[in-house]
Amino acid sequence: MSPPRPYHCGMSEFQVYMVGGAVRDRLLGRAVHDRDWVVVGATPEQMSARGFLPVGRDFPVFLHPETHEEYALARTERKSGLGYRGFVVQAAPDVTLEQDLARRDLTINAMAAPADWDGESAITDPYHGQADLQARVLRHVTGAFREDPVRILRVARFAARFHEFTVAPETMALMREMVAAGEVDALVPERVWQEISRGLMERRPSRMFELLRECGALSVLLPELERLWGVPQRAEYHPEVDTGVHAMMVLDMAAQLDAPLPVRYACLVHDLGKGTTPADVLPRHIGHEQRSARLAEKVGERLRVPTDCRELGDVVAREHGNIHRSGELNGAAIVRLLERCDAIRKPARFEQALMACECDARGRLGFEDRPYPQRARLREALAAALSVSTSDIAAQAAARGKQGKAIGEAVQAARAQAVADWLAQAA
To answer: Does residue 316 form part of some domain?
Structure first.
């Protein structure tokens, strides 16, 4: 796809290139949704004079006045401190395209194409990104990779997206060195969550966490998750046995079912408590649900996870065992379960909780294609409970002289009866 013509207006004296993911994805035959552009030979003043809107705080990035695509001035970056914020950025007309590409994370993202690229003609590829695309390898561009610890998370995220790719040994070695040097410790929660949330939404989210574990970053960023590997579970329920392996299978099942982010996050944290089970109790995990909820709360606070993800993570961590066993419950017990999940007030969130529980049930070795009748059963039970007219029940109770808590109990009893009646019909 060629760029919209308005970008050419008044910019003939500059060199404009499509860069990064748009070039990579087009070479892979994937759909290109967003395009980024680099402008060589321009100043911020010249861009503004042509109607481009500045948006970059730390370096010159502009929005096209009509297409709103991003145009960044070619720049170099130099590390000046710990973490990812300590950079000195130079954007000047004499910065070359090759210099700009050198600061990028992976070779497959360090390619540039002419503005009118037809997908076939030659591109600028000084770091052999095309060869790495063909070889299915994620490889860092230069040693400057070590200057930005966010790149560790980005490599892990790309591994989740391009799950058939391997990480070059020298890149993995560099990532391990960065972890050992404490670079990951300097990452701020917002950036960690930004990359983790993106990785959760990729095709094979398990690869992100497996890669972070391999380079040592997971024990820094999510020690609650890292400690699950090597923890056994009862083989009759978990033929995969290893709790960490199970957690990753649950995540990948969520991706297979095209689950939204809150569901995937809930899958990630639902079993954290199994990492704290006393050794003399293993392979059983008595009471792990409440421990999981407490640990999930700590993770959510530390990474500043959005409220919808945190709330669903809490519900699923606390109640997934009860939801799995819900086929054994009578009408009154089901209503109590619905109330603990706040399903009456938030039926949409409860549906997400059921989806996460299905991922948990099917994210086990040999269980991948098993049905999960609990999901449909509890969905219908909730419908039965919601069919009760609370205003009518409350009015009848008030007419009998009941008030306050007693009215609430009357409503609960009516819902329990409605669910019991539905169970009898469904039997």
So the answer is: yes
Within a domain: 45: yes
Burial of 390 (0-12, 13-18, 19+ CB in 10 A): middle
Residues 26 and 108 in one domain: yes
- Identify whether 114 is preceded by a cis peptide bond (ω within 30 of 0): no
Q: Are residues 323 and 422 in the same domain?
A: no
Structural domain that includes position 271: 263-370
Note whether 47 and 60 are within 8 A (CB): yes
Domain assignment present for 257: no
Taking the chain (427 residues) in runs of 10, the rounded mean pLDDT of each run is 44 81 92 88 88 81 89 78 59 86 93 86 92 97 91 97 96 97 93 97 97 98 97 95 97 98 98 96 94 97 98 98 96 96 97 98 97 97 91 79 77 90 89
Q: Are 190 and 304 in contact (CB under 8 A)?
A: yes
pLDDT of 138-160, one tens digit each?
A: 999 998 899 899 999 999 999 99
User: What's the number of domains the chain is made of?
Assistant: 3
pTM of the model: 0.89
Alpha-carbon gap, residue 378 to 380, rounded angstroms = 5
Domain co-membership, 15 together with 114: yes
Could you read off the pLDDT of 184-234 as tens digits, one per residue? Answer: 998 999 999 999 999 999 999 999 999 999 999 999 999 999 999 999 999
68 CB neighbour count, 10 Å cutoff: 9
In a domain, 231, yes or no: no
Residues 6+ positions from 240 with CB-CB distance below 8 Å = 246, 249, 364, 365
Same domain, 407 and 296: no
